[in-house]
Write a structure and sequence with these properties.
Blueprint: H1 28-37, E1 44-47, E2 56-59, E3 77-81, E4 89-92, H2 95-103, E5 107-109, H3 111-114, E6 122-125, H4 131-149, H5 155-161
Antiparallel strand pairs: 1-2, 2-3, 3-4, 4-6, 5-6
Helix pairs in contact: 1-4, 4-5
């Protein structure tokens, strides 16, 4: 996984877990990210059940879920994008992928996950500042989707997290 450039952004130490600086100067990186995720098979976009008002959640339809229970934050919600001015996102990754994303500077473990209350793979992925960073964030969301659906990681994601 490529190293994220620059220092990590400042974040709040507890809920709501929010990114405080290093947001993009406009909405283009976020729109680029959403465009890449818009057609994930079977994903239902909805309001988040656990995030701040205005957060957009990626969920799976109600019914049998293929991935392990630890692949979800609540119900079938495996990721959500925070609204402006934050622009970061939370998602759940397999433990090795979460560790790789954290080590490369793209993410940090959710403070509630550190307490053992939610999945240990729950991370904040920092707000993409440009299209390149949005591509990496999209790959991380695709890894979260693969974990949630119990499917194999996409080849680009396997390369990204070193598996």
């Amino acid at each position: 996984m490529p190293q994220r450039l620059g220092p990590r952004p400042s974040t709040t130490p507890t809920n709501p877990h929010t990114q405080l600086d290093q947001q993009p100067s406009d909405d283009r990186p976020r729109q680029h990210l959403i465009g890449q995720l818009a057609h994930l098979p079977g994903v239902v976009w909805a309001g988040s059940l656990i995030s701040v008002p205005g957060a957009r959640a990626l969920t799976l339809p109600e019914g049998p879920v293929q991935g392990p229970p630890d692949a979800f934050m609540i119900g079938t919600e495996f990721a959500h994008l925070h609204p402006a001015p934050d622009h970061s996102l939370h998602l759940v990754l397999p433990p090795a992928a979460a560790e790789a994303a954290i080590d490369a500077g793209w993410a940090e473990q959710h403070p509630i996950a550190r307490l053992g209350i939610i999945s240990p793979g729950a991370v904040m992925v920092y707000a993409p500042r440009d299209a390149h960073e949005a591509d990496i964030a999209a790959d991380l969301v695709r890894a979260s989707y693969a974990y949630a659906t119990g499917s194999e990681l996409p080849r680009s994601t396997e390369n990204l997290i070193g598996h």
